[in-house]
Specification:
- With 260 residues, the chain is an alpha/beta fold.
- It is 18% helix and 27% strand.
- It is built from five helices and 15 strands.
- Strands 1-15-13-5-7-11-12-4-14 form a nine-stranded mixed sheet. A two-stranded antiparallel sheet has the order 2-3. Strands 6-10 form a two-stranded parallel sheet.
- β2 and β3 form a beta hairpin.
- α4 runs parallel beside α5.
Amino acid sequence: MNTQDLLGNLVGALASGHLKVIDLTQTLSTEFPTLELPPQFGQCEPLRVEKVSEYDDRGPMWYWNNFSCNEHTGTHFDAPIHWVTGKDLANNSVDTLPVQELVGPAIVIDCSAEAAANPDFLLDVAHLEAWEAANGRIDEGAWVLMRTDWSKHAQSSRYKNMDETGQHTPGPTPEAVKFLVGRGIRGFGTETIGTDAGQAHSMDPPYPAHHFLHGAGRYGLQCLTNLDRLPTRGAVIICPPLKLERGSGSPLRVLALVAA
């Protein structure tokens, strides 16, 4: 089959409804929760919106806004340059990373029951090995998406789940991230504010998802939603970040293609 036929089949499947497009993106608003670091560090700015005109004397025929936010606000992409372990890699920022990396297969690890029972649930190697025993080996070049249904808490304080010790949200263990990097994954995605667990600051190394993923030139996706609508295997993820010069990441819209 030639390229024209392949693309024609793709367009036809989309038009006929045999291929669905599922939005994995949270709506970016001024109220959407942002990551909080210890006070001695710089902080992630939330979205700020300033109306320029709305069919008025500032612009009689057009509506538009100025906006500003941190690169890691809302549903967002982490590039390797975001972490110290990836700072010296080639093509490590969002403007230089290979664009073919931004479209790829995804698998979903369902941890929703465990996360509902324990907000500090940690995805470990035993869980991944059990998943592989049931579903087959994790594919090289796949996005691994950790489903926790945490996105359903985005409008409440439970999304950050903060107390005096910090956030209490699920994520992977250091060993699990090393296992996934060893499988050659493309990146790791979560429904929480970060790819790491809320208490990952106390792990060895601290924030292991960032440490190992970005050190290996791999990527992160955070604040995803609708992972419960994806199959365990078979989805394709499209996730191009903004092409910011030397950007460490950016808000983006993540789409999944799924057979109907």
